[in-house]
């Protein structure tokens, strides 16, 4: 079981992650409700497409833009559709 943990709290856990460029992409359904909030930030990857971001919020502390996803990935990255990855201090580790 792979877990994403920040501020001592498990944000997501799943045994069905997809690894792309060293990042575990969790099914959106594996992310615990109420711990991520959408923000207006986007970035563009030449081969994956446009990424959108979430802030991770745990116990009143906010980790800005610490989660991202590709709502409409390009064909080369179709396997990460409906999946969320983490960074910026979020620890991703086997549970």
Protein described:
With 95 residues, the protein is an all-beta fold. It has a single domain, classed as Domain of unknown function (DUF427) (Metal Binding Protein, Guanine Nucleotide Exchange Factor, Chain A, Beta Complex), CATH 2.170.150.40. The protein has no helices and nine strands. The strands form two sheets. A six-stranded antiparallel β-sheet has the order 3-4-8-7-6-5, with no helix packed on it. A three-stranded antiparallel β-sheet has the order 2-1-9, with no helix packed on it. A hairpin with a 2-residue loop joins strand 3 and strand 4.
Taking pLDDT < 50 over at least 5 consecutive residues as the criterion, the unreliable ranges are none
- Radius of gyration, in Å, reads 12 Å
- The arrangement of helices and strands along the chain is EEEEEEEEE
Number of domains: 1
Name of the CATH superfamily = Domain of unknown function (DUF427)
Second CATH tier, the architecture: Beta Complex
Counting DSSP E segments of at least 2 residues, the number of strands comes to 9
Shape annotation = globular
* C-alpha end-to-end distance: 5 Å
Mean pLDDT: 97
CATH topology category name: Metal Binding Protein, Guanine Nucleotide Exchange Factor, Chain A
Structural class: mainly beta
Residue share in helix = under 10%
Beta content comes to: over 45%
């Amino acid at each position: 079981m792979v877990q994403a943990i920040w501020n001592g709290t498990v944000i997501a856990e799943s045994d069905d992650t997809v690894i792309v460029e060293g990042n575990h992409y969790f099914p959106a359904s594996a992310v615990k409700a109420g711990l991520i909030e959408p923000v207006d930030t986007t970035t563009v990857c030449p081969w994956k497409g446009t990424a959108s971001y979430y802030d991770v919020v745990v116990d009143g502390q906010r980790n800005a833009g610490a989660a991202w996803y590709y709502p409409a990935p390009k064909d080369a990255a179709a396997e990460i559709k409906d999946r969320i990855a983490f960074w910026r201090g979020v620890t991703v580790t086997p549970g």
